[in-house]
Structure prediction request, 228 residues.
Amino acid sequence: MEHVYFVENGLVSVAAKIGPEKFTEVWLIGTDGMVGAPLALAHNSEPLYRRTVQVGGDALRIASGPFRQMLTHLPNLQRLLSAYLSAVLVQTSQAGACNAAHPLKQRLARWLLLARRGLESDAIPLTHSILAQLLCVRRASITECLDHLERLALIRTDRGLIVVQNPGGLMSICCDCFRIIEREYERQLALSSTPDAGHDSVMVGRIEVTGAIGSDSLKSRDTPNGAS
Prediction:
């Protein structure tokens, strides 16, 4: 990756490899997230994870070199990135514990709540097959769990779409993992609300994100503009 991306809308999943051509998701990146944080911190860092756009949208991007230079001159940016990485660390470690210890129904509830948060929408346009891949389970198991949640009137499903109808009810059957992750992101948001004293302009581009995120795999609509 030659750029870092700040997601404006959409959903990106980051998956760790657990076998030949087999991955399991370890964290979600939504409207509050950044793709490429490890690249921003180290030169020539190799991607350790597979990043896939699950729900297409828009993102702002900046070349990794200038972004690293900004980090050395803007202490507030360093602080905000550290807060974000702290939240990512909590989500990845909690997701690992959740996947190992909790039943699929709770894991699925956690994922739906995180996706709803990341999209800032009750509507999650994903298929059963994609969910099964993300949670590393059989499609039939996902369908069974979704049917159960729908019978409880917590969600509504349609072809390629899941709508969260009762977030509070979904949270009541979820494990504590979502609340732990949410608390850390709330802390990050509180830190991010502090006004930045810097006013340096940087060149960014707004792009449409689809598919796998790599060095050349984005279908982009670059419209460079100034940001401060």
